[in-house]
Design brief:
It is built from three helices and 14 strands. By secondary structure, it is mainly β. The strands form four sheets. Strands 2, 3, 5, 6, 8 and 9 form a six-stranded mixed β-sheet that branches. The chain has a three-stranded antiparallel β-sheet with strand order 1-4-7, with no helix packed on it. The protein has a three-stranded antiparallel β-sheet with strand order 11-12-14, with no helix packed on it. The chain is globular and about 55 Å long. The termini are far apart. Pfam families: CBM_5_12, LPMO_10. It comes from Lentzea albidocapillata. This is Chitin-binding protein. GO terms for molecular function: carbohydrate binding; hydrolase activity, hydrolyzing O-glycosyl compounds.
């Protein structure tokens, strides 16, 4: 009788033990690690843990609905990332910037978007594929200068959510950032040289790998655009995607 009573007590205790056993965090996703985003700065201790909230421990998890323009994904645990008054380190850059995403879970990707204020300055298609880890993109910041906050957004292909990173920049602040030597690009731009770059067409259709002078016009998607700043075009810099380079006429 005593043996049966002991066995019953042991079996009754098992569900309680299972219930209180800590469950490992499933929040593993991605963030901009270079140049150091606000999340990255929190994770590496550049900003005090007391100021950073959950970003200190999970820089990759600032997740929220698609379409936001903030640093936290409207996630209260990451709200300190939206505070422009914290001592964020600023990256000096020229008119182009290379950014590297680090992933802890490689979700199928709709696309990546980069904004300064309400202007989208970069776009990379994800083709609903898993990204390589890490992944580097190069974007054009033409038309902007001085202290700016860049919103980097990773839109997931099979959920309604996106992941958000913010990078504090000083554009034309004395140099650019150098991408790490072992990174890859999701959609590598074509190599351009002086021998392959073509002159701007006179009223022709926009094309990648082409030099455009300020004031030249092109057509794209049935609309006409005027070049706002001289540049050599790359895939992903189509006129509707880079308002800093093209204006619709």
């Amino acid at each position: 009788m005593k043996l049966m009573r002991k066995a019953a007590l042991v079996m009754a205790a098992v569900p309680a033990i299972v219930f209180i056993t800590p469950v490992g965090s499933a929040s593993a996703h991605g963030y901009v690690s270079s140049p150091a985003s606000r999340s990255a700065q929190c994770a590496r201790g550049d900003v005090s843990v007391d100021l950073c909230g959950q970003a200190k421990y999970e820089p990759q998890s600032a997740e929220g609905p698609k379409g936001l323009k903030n640093c936290s994904g409207a996630n209260g645990a990451f709200a300190p990332l939206d505070n422009d008054g914290l001592p964020w380190k600023v990256t000096n850059t020229g008119q182009t910037l290379s950014l590297t995403w680090t992933f802890t879970a490689r979700h199928a990707t709709r696309d990546y978007e980069y904004f300064i204020g309400g202007t989208r300055v970069g776009y990379v298609a994800g083709n609903n594929q898993q990204p390589t880890n890490p992944t580097t993109h190069t974007i054009n910041l033409g038309g902007f200068s001085g202290r700016q906050k860049l919103y980097a957004i990773w839109n997931i292909g099979d959920t309604v959510n996106a992941f958000y990173s913010c990078i504090d920049l000083n554009i034309n602040g004395g140099g650019g950032t150098t991408p790490p030597p072992t990174t890859t690009t999701t959609t590598p731009p074509p190599t351009t040289t002086s021998s392959t770059t073509t002159p701007p067409p006179a009223g022709g259709t926009w094309a990648a790998n082409t030099s455009y002078a300020t004031g030249s016009t092109v057509t794209y998607g049935g609309s006409t655009y005027r070049c706002r700043q001289a540049h050599t075009s790359l895939t992903g810099w189509e006129p509707p995607n880079v308002a800093a380079l093209w204006e619709k006429v």
